[in-house]
Fold this sequence. Notes:
Helices cover about 45% and strands about 10% of the residues. It contains 13 helices and seven strands. Helix 7 (about 190-205) links the parallel strand 5 (about 180) and strand 6 (about 210-215). Helix 2 (about 40-55) runs antiparallel to helix 11. This is TniB family NTP-binding protein.
Amino acid sequence: MTAAFTPPADEPLTSKEGWSRWVQHDPRPPELHLDWPHLSPVEQAAYDDARLDYHSDLIVVNTPTIQEVVKTVRRLLILNRRQISARRGLIITGGAGTGKTTAITQLGRAHELSVALRNPVTGPRIPVVYVTVPPAATPRMLAVEFARFLGMPLASRSNITDVTNAVCAVLCDVGCDLVLVDEIHNLNLATRAGAEASDQLKYFSERIPATFVYSGINVERANLFTGTRGEQIASRFATIATRPFAYGTTVQRENWRALVATLEQALRLHRHKAGTLARHGEYLYQRSRGMIGSLSHLIRGAAIDAILDGTEKITKAHLDAIRLDHAAETVTPTPSPARHRRQRPGAA
C-alpha cells in the first residue's frame, strides 16, 4: 500500500518534472509519538499538521485490478521488444470513479522504478510518458501534449509534422518504452477530428518503440471500436474493465472488509481501535457505492476531523458528517449476485 502524491500546480503529472517527482515520492507514514499529550503547543501543532497532511493524500491499495494491469503490461513490454510495428497494447475501461487513472499511474510508477533498479544509467532517460487527451482533441493538440510532457519549446509557427518528428526523435533517444494515454474517451471516432486524432496516436505508436496503454470511461460507448479505425484498435488492444467492489456474496463481503481493514491500518490516530471500521462494513459500502476512491475519501475525512476535534478516533458521527461526491450520495448500490463474483474490483 502506498500513499499517492500530488505535484505542485506548475508541475502536473503530465510533465516530466511532475511525473518524476511523484514517482520518487517517499510514501512512508509519520510515526505516532507515544508522548504526544506532553508535547508543547508548537510541537503539537507541527505534529498534528504532519498527520493531517498524511491523511490528505489518497491512500492507494494494491487491488486485484492494479495487480492485473501491472502483470499484463509487463508481459506486453516483453512481447513488444522485437516488434517493428503492430505492437500490442492495453485499454483500461470502466465507469467514472472506478480507479482507471489510479491503475494507469501506478502501472507507470512501478515500471519506472523497475527500470531504474535494473538499468541504472547516468544519461537522460524517460522510460514513461503520461499524457491526457484534451476534449475535442485534434492531431496537433495531441502532439503538443506529448511535447509539453517533455518540456520541449514550441515555436508558434511549428506545424504538426515538426512537432511530431521532434517528439518521436526525443522519445527514441531517451529510451521511452511505455506511453500512458489517459482520458481516451475524449476521442470520438465518429467525428473527423476524433478520427484524425486516433490516426495521430497510431502514428506515434508506429514511430516510438513503446507499449501504449489507454484509459477512459466506458470506451465502448465512445465509438472507440467502431469503423475501420476502431476495428484496428480492437485487433491490437486487450481490455481490462474496472468496476466497483461487489457485496453480494460471502467472499465479496470478506474482500470488502479486508479492504476496509487495510485502509484502517493506514490511519495515524492515537485512540482509534483496530476493527472499528470493519464493523461498519455494510454502512461504508452503502455510503461509497463500493468505490474505493469514495471509501478512502470518507475514511480520511473522518480521520482529519478526529485529529481536529481531539477525539483521535473515528466514530459513526464522524463518518455521517462527511459529504461524498454527488453520485455516492444519490445512488444506492445493488449488491451483485453470485454470478458476478469473478468481476474485478476497482482501485482507488
